[in-house]
Amino acid sequence: MKALPLSEYIILHFNEVSSEGISPLKLQKILYYVYVWGIVSKKKVLSDTFLKWKYGPVNQDVYNAYKSFGNSKIANVSSIASYSLSNDDEKFVNFVVSNYVKFSALSLSAMTHQDKPWQDTELNEPISESAIKSFYSKLKFAKNFPIDEDKPFFPVETDLHYSFILDFVSSSSFFIVYKSYKEYLSLQDDSKASFNMVYQNWLGT
User: Fold this and answer.
1) What is the spatial distance between Cα 200 and Cα 203, in angstroms, rounded to a whole number?
2) 48, 114 in Cβ contact below 8 A?
3) Looking at 29-38, 71-80, 109-118, which range is the least confident one?
4) Which value, in Å, is the radius of gyration of the alpha carbons in the chain?
5) Can the peptide bond before residue 146 be classed as cis, meaning omega within 30 degrees of 0?
6) 5 pLDDT more than 60
7) Residue 162 pLDDT
8) What gap in Å lies between CA 159 and CA 59, rounded to an integer?
9) Cα separation of 76 and 159, whole Å?
10) What is the C-alpha separation between 110 and 158, in angstroms, rounded?
11) Does residue 161 register a pLDDT over 70?
């Protein structure tokens, strides 16, 4: 699938999930990680390439389509879908996007800047698949593929994680792993519910 149709899918399904919405910058980084993990898992849903730009990897067609929104949330695209995803591909895309959409656009941009494929590519040049496979296949998140919600789950390694392990401890001793993706999602829901309860109680004081 090309990046533009997949962009429509992500905007339609995740614009309201993200607290800040999907901005052009955030969309680019989420698409890039769908591209990355498709290469690593040998499930290449997204066929386009990404260039190294100053603020991270960018797909030129997506940039041209949404640049008018600047740093703002992209207004919902037409509900008449121009994309077609198989159930398996949709499961893959939803898994990757769900794990990255919770981060801010700036955090996602910072994360790509910590990744060697972006660092080692010349400005305005395409980021190679070989560089992507070599780097990302070594990250803990790669262990989540093929997707199985009942096997151990390794969350996304953020830019803060990279900084922490470089300064203090080894990756293996610091990294948190969950019993399963289902357990991870359940703990997330519990955390949100606890926060909302505390917040509502605070409003009532």
Assistant:
1) 5
2) no
3) 71-80
4) 17
5) yes
6) yes
7) 43
8) 22
9) 29
10) 9
11) no
Q: Which amino acid is at 5?
A: P
The residue type of 71 is: N
Residue found under tokens 């995740």: 14
DSSP state of 74: P
Tokens of 8: 């429509």
Q: Which residues pair with 136 in a beta bridge?
A: none
E strand or H helix that includes residue 25: helix 24-40
Q: How far is CA 131 from the centre of its chain?
A: 18
State the distance between the two ends of the chain, measured CA to CA, in whole angstroms. 52
Q: What 8-state DSSP symbol labels residue 138?
A: T
Long-range contacts of 131-137 (CB under 8 A, 24+ apart): 132/35, 132/36, 132/39, 132/40, 133/39, 133/40, 136/36, 136/37, 136/39, 136/40, 137/40
